[in-house]
Structure formats: structure tokens, C-alpha cells
Amino acid sequence: MQFISPISNFYSMFRFVSVVLMISSALFASVKTKIIQSSHKNLVIHVVTNPVTTADLYPSTLLIGLPSLKLPKTQIRYYRKSPNPFPGFNKQNQTDFEWYNLQILQNLPSAVLEIDPKTKDGSFYEIVEIHIQFGPYEYPLRRPTSTEITLSANRILNWQTAKNWLRPEKRSAKKIQSFPPGKWISFELLEDGMKMIMQETLANIIPSISSHDPRAYMLFMSSELGRSRSQSVNLPIADNLVEVSIDIEGESDGSFDIEDRIIFYGRGPSGYELKISDVNWNQNLYFTTNTCWLFLPDDNSIRGKRVKMLPVPEFTSLTLDYGLSFYHAEIDLVNPEGSGLQWVGNSIPASGSQIITAITPNPKSGVDANITIQFMGNSSSETSSANHRMELRHNSSGGIQVGNTLTWTGTGLRNISGTIPGSELNSGNNAFYIQNISDDGNSAPYFDFFDIQYGRLLDDVEAFEFFAPAVGQEVRFTFSEPISSTTRVWDITNPQKASLANVSNLVNLEVILPTDTLARFAVFNINSLTNVENLEYQPNTVMDDLRNQITIAQYIIVGPKSFQTAVHPLLNLRNPSRYANLENIYQEYSAGNRDPMAVRSFLQWTQENWQEPKPICVLLLGDSGYDYRNITGESSIIVPTIQVQAYRSFATDDRFATIYGNIPEIALGRYPARNLDEVEDFVDKIIALESGPEFGPWRQKV
Fold it and tell me: What does the entry give for GO biological process (predicted)?
């Protein structure tokens, strides 16, 4: 599908339209705002309303510059009460005014003030007088930059005073990452787990491997270690790459020999996340592999980060023969709304059923299993909603019921949560029967996900992970039988800094559990690890083409590398300007993962680190859509947008520019080109428009 969005073709393209709007506003405006007094202590504003349509009686919003991130004292006075010419269109709010969107905007504290001229009794006030009393300013006075003037002078109502309240410019020099000369190798991971890279695999793409000391090898992932980035605002710019601890067998002699291998804990794009004492599944909705980087420095004196031994307690106060393990089932197949981020699996019709197979090796009989299954309501009729009634049973359609019968109406998300005794679980496959027992023939809810937490007895039959069921104690975990001499246990509570745990007598794992979080461990046999085969040597890798502090550009085009040559004439028309291809943005701001939020991190970087004049306009050049992972096989995404999943989903590009709050920091728009021909046509039209503007007689009739 072609992504429909307002087309923004850079700043000067708006100048003519802006002039027309300003002239027409002056001639025909029914709501006028006038500053009566403006100083560093007080601001008095008149909002004068002469309603012609109902639009003139909507609340007025004023963007006000402030001396600090503290809302000022505000008083409202009303004059000239008149009958509302639009009966029934009365004031709804209880308050006289409302402040919102308090944030830093182009280094200036600011907020939006909303004023409603209407009353609840069918009248309105022709004049609303606003008195604002400001607090003190805490920073040294400085002159605004050209970028701040361009982007704020016509937005901030009291700019002439507020420009004296600009905060020191943000700079994040500490986020400049520099790397010594060396070789970069990238590879992709699909899921969490212990991995290895064999010497032979690496030697196949780096024939000179013998010249590199393995003690210098480094492994990097994104700051999110493969997961998608938060969309919260006012966040510091994350490091592009973070080094992950690894273990290299045989590195002590300074040579990476045929029998040597790199062992590490890898992360896929989706998986379980540990947040203090909560363990939750993180489903990545944007990309399907995690890009990792192996770096071989040319300087053999450098030393990479290595796995260290975990401290052993002097004594233990608790003995356990099990840990908590998890299993998650989720297959995204359908986006019911054709928009947003809500993906689900198959629908289950009335009187129908579906079987979910959960794998639970070696369950402990004395520990209950906690189970959650989620559905999304759906009706097979396009004209009416449906009543749903769902059950979940274990092992057979007449087996033990998990939780209560779930009943609801409509399309909302609902879940069944319940427990079953650990003794009821099979060691291996468990069939859970989802049954739609609704008597409404239109009922066809979607299966969303299934999750089970259970106690698992410790062994080394296969690789697995477990969480400690206790915190803040010295614990002895005992294996059911002596483990193999080639079995290892790593503490992966912090996946970036894994530690090797000691198993005494091949039976007892004795550890000091942290007090502030659950501990997480990985059990594996070094001879049964999965070898990473998809290594790719990346010569001439550059990590600072866009992530630097020397670039000067007021205009940016963000698009795929394939469009870059076609827009050179437009870049030449806009000077200084820069084409930022998505491949470089991903590589320098999300470690190569196709995370849409890398675009926002890049734009934030330009505002905090590029030289003046900084970017004021951004053009997103390419179509977009909602199918980031190409689940349908028909994704139209060339340049991603941000899909917001709320009560009703919607797409927005503004989120790329809302860096420190809800108000966009810079001007941003999109031309939804689907191919190179459309890009070339677009550029030709812009060049023609500006080279010989012929607007026609309509220009005289505005």
C-alpha cells in the first residue's frame, strides 16, 4: 500500500504558502492573538474572538516560552460576554485554562497554554485576557543560534523575551565512539541462547586470521542487545555498540588455532526480559534478526572483554534442585486492523478448537505452573460484534481446565490466567486445548500468545535457561545427576556481562543471589553449541559517517541508498544539505538493526552534535506502512513510519522529531515514493517549480 502523508519538500518550498496564509489570516482572521505586555517577569495576552464558524470558537492554543520547566502562575480575565451564535456548542472543560506539553524545545523551556472563550450557558467572551507571571531564570544569557531563530521565532509567542531564556546547547560528546583500525565481521541471530564461532568458520572469510591475537577480539551488539528501542521521549542518545563479554577457548597462547572457538551468550530480537523480579516476553514488532559485530583489531596489544568467574559463597543457606523456566508460543500472522502494531495468530471459530504444544522438560512436581493465554476478540460478521466464550484445558479437550472460562464481547484483548500442579505436566510436549464454546456463530477470536512458567529440575541433558526462585541468599543448586565435564553454567542476569559459575563435584552450583533482581543462568555443553555460520566480512566499515560532530546541513533527506543519486539536483538546490541513507542510519544508530527509532536517534544527534546551522527540515523519501517484518510478503515499507497502537491505531512521522516532548523539534514531512521513477519525477517537479514558478491567475484570487 502507498503511505499517505503530507508532503514536505523543504523549508523554502513552504515560503510562498506561508506568505499566503499570513496574508489571508490578517484579512479574514476571526481569532486574533495580541501581546499587550511582555517582559522577563510578566506576559499579558489578548485573545480576541469574532466567530464566523464553529472553528472560531474552538479553544486557542498558545506556545509560550518559559524561563524554566516550571509552569508559571496564570490568571484569566474575561470581557464582552456575547450570545454564542452556534447553540449547543458550549464549553466542556471545568477549568479556565490548561497547560500541557511542558518540554525543552530548541533548548528553550516551553509549554502550550489552551484557552476556551466559550461558557457553559450558551455564551462566549469576545476578549480573553491572560496574565502570566514568570519565575527566575537560572542560566547565563546567550545569543540564540541561527537554527533556534529559524525554528522558534515564529512558533514561540513571546520569542522576543523568551530568547533570553535559552539553555546551554546540548552536546553528547561522550557518545562519540571511536574504534582502532581492524576488521569488522557482522552476523545475524534469530533467538536467545549460547552460541559459538569456530576458528574454521572465521578463517574462511578472514584468511589472515593467524595475524590477529584472539585476546584482542571484541563482540558488539546494540545498546538494547538486540531488542527494539524505546519510543519514550527525552532520552539520552544510546551508544550504537556495546561490548559483550565472551570466552575464547585456547586464546592464552595468543593464537586462534583450528581447535579454538569463541563462546558467547547471544540475543535475538525477541525473548524474555528480566526487570527486577518480573520476567516478561518481549515481542519485537519491527525486525526479525539481531545484527552482531565481531571486531578484530589490528593492534594485538588491545584486550577484549572476557567472561569472569562468579564469586563462590563461603556457606549456603538454601538448597534447591530446580529453577524457574519459561516457554512462549506466539506466531504473528494477521493484523486485524490493517494498521498499527497488533498482530495475532489464527482465529478460532465458534465450536472450534486449537492445540498449543508447550515443551516443558523435566518439570518439578512440587511447583505449580503459571499459565497465561491471550486472545483478541473478532467477529466473522462485518456488521455486528460477537459474544465470546473461551476455555483452556490441558492434555485433552476434557482435561484439567486452566483458569476460569473467559467471556467477553467485541474486539478487545482478554486473557485466561491460571495454574496447574507441576505433577500434571509431561516431561516434554504438553498439549493445551483452546476451545471456543460460544453459542454465537459469529464468534471467532484470534489467538495472540501462550506463556507458561514452571519449575524445572536441573540436569544437563540439553541446553536451557532458568531463573532463581529466590533473591538475596547464598544458594546451592543441585543437579539431579553429575553433569558432564564439558557442561558449563553462566550467570546471564546481565547479558552484557556474563559470568562463569563454578559447579563443585559436578553437582553443586553455589552462588550468591543478588538482592535487587532475580538471577538468570544458562546451562550448556560446549560440545553441543550452535555454530554461527552466517559471518560476513564488512571491509571499509565506517561508524561515523553521520555520527560525528563536524557535519553542517540545514536540510536532510532520509531514504534508501538506491534513491541517493536521483536526488542530487535537489540537494544542490538546498545548501547546506545532506542525504542520509537508511543503511548508514541503521548501522550507526541501531547497530545495523532495522529499528525505526534509529531515525529519531539520528535526528537527535544532528540537533545535539552537528555544527551550526543545524538541520531545520527533514524529508522522508519513500513509502511506508505497518508490516515492518513483511509478515504478509507484501510490505510497502521503504522508509519506516511510527505506528502508534492506542484505542485506535494510527501512523505518524512526528514521533521521529518529538525528541524532548510531544512537540516536534524540527520540520518534517514525507514524499511516499515507491520506486526510482517516482523519485525522479518528484525531483523534476520541484526543480521546475522553483526555477520558473508560474502559479497562474489563482494567485490573485486568494
Answer: proteolysis
Task: Supply the DSSP string of 415-431, one letter for each residue.
Answer: EEEEEE-GGGS-SEEEE
Residue 286 covered by a domain? yes
What's the farthest any 2 CA atoms get from each other in the chain? 93
**Residues near 173 by Cβ (< 8 Å), separated by ≥ 6?**
549, 609
Contact 29, 124 (CB under 8 A): no
Q: Do residue 463 and residue 452 come from a single domain?
A: no
CA distance 615 to 106: 11
Residue type, 156: I
User: Consecutive sets of 10 residues in the chain, 702 residues long: mean pLDDT of each?
Assistant: 41 39 47 96 97 93 97 96 92 88 96 95 95 94 95 96 92 74 98 97 95 97 96 94 97 95 98 91 96 98 97 95 97 92 96 97 97 97 95 96 98 96 97 98 98 97 96 96 96 97 96 95 97 97 95 98 97 94 97 98 96 97 96 96 80 94 95 97 92 67 56
Q: Given 457, 475, 497, which residue is the final one in a domain? A: 457
Same domain, 578 and 690: yes
* CATH code of the domain containing 684: 3.40.50.10390
Buried b (16+ CB within 10 A) or exposed e, 26-39: eeeeebeeeeeebe
13 lies in some domain: no
**Residue 336: inside a domain:** no
Q: What is d(CA 344, CA 334) in angstroms, rounded to the nearest whole number?
A: 5
C-alpha cell recorded at residue 45: 495576552
Distance CA 468, CA 471 (A): 7
443 lies in which domain range? 323-329+342-457
Burial 674-702, CB ≥16 within 10 A → b, else e: eeeebbbebbeebeeeeeeeeeeeeeeee
